[in-house]
Amino acid sequence: MTDILALFAAVASAVATFFVAYASWRAPRAAAELAESLRRAAESINERKRQKFFILATLMQERAAIYTENGVRALNMIDVVFNDSRAVREAWAELYLAFNNQQLMRGPGHDDKLRQLLAAMAEDVGLADQIRTADLSRVYFPEALSQERLIRDLERQQALARLQGNASPSANTAPQVAQLFPPPPA
Q1: Band (181; pLDDT cuts 50, 70, 90)
Q2: CA-CA distance, 167 to 160, in Å (whole number)?
Q3: Contact in structure between 51 and 113 (CB atoms under 8 Å)
Q4: Which of 92, 95, 85 is nearest to 52 (CA)?
Q5: Taking Cα atoms as reference points, which of 117, 135, 110 lies closest to residue 81?
Q6: Cis omega before residue 182 (within 30°)?
Q7: Of 16, 91, 110, 183, which has the fewest CB atoms closer than 10 Å, so is most exposed?
């Protein structure tokens, strides 16, 4: 009987030694995997924060004329980057509706809706205490820059009118498409 107990104790000791050896081998690996997992999660969180700050900064830079390419890109990224922020997405939806309802680049409600969007973004990124409504309303847009944009817009409208055939014949020097095709019969 003592032989059986001694054999059982030896087997139990061997099994325990095996588990200790396995744990000693596995623990550093598990710790490394956990550390890598935590590093990736922190990196992902930091990247999301960086993207949110980038969009907020871009919209703050472009708030004088939100219809620039950079402004439009930033607006179109809101649903993806701020997908976890209901307040930001609702403010963006309201601004989007204001844009579409008036079919104009700037309308009476756009500035207020844009400020609401910027305030919601500032809240989401943790800057609500540092950025006031007055900060969101203060825009520097010199007259020279305004005039340059107006000239570009007018030039674009004239080019579009020429392409659509709406310009006066003296302004349109390019042959009409109807004159080129089909070719006259030979």
Answers
A1: very low
A2: 9
A3: no
A4: 85
A5: 117
A6: yes
A7: 183
Note the pLDDT tens digit of each residue in 7-54.
Answer: 888 888 888 888 888 878 788 887 888 888 888 889 999 999 999 999
Burial class (CB in 10 A: 0-12, 13-18, 19+), 49: middle
Of 98, 123, 122, residue with least CA distance to 112: 98
DSSP tag of 105: S
* pLDDT-based confidence at residue 138 (cuts at 50, 70, 90): confident
- Is the pTM higher than 0.90? The answer reads no
Instruction: Copy the structure tokens of residue 12.
Output: 């139990």
Give CA–CA dist 69/168, Å, rounded: 30
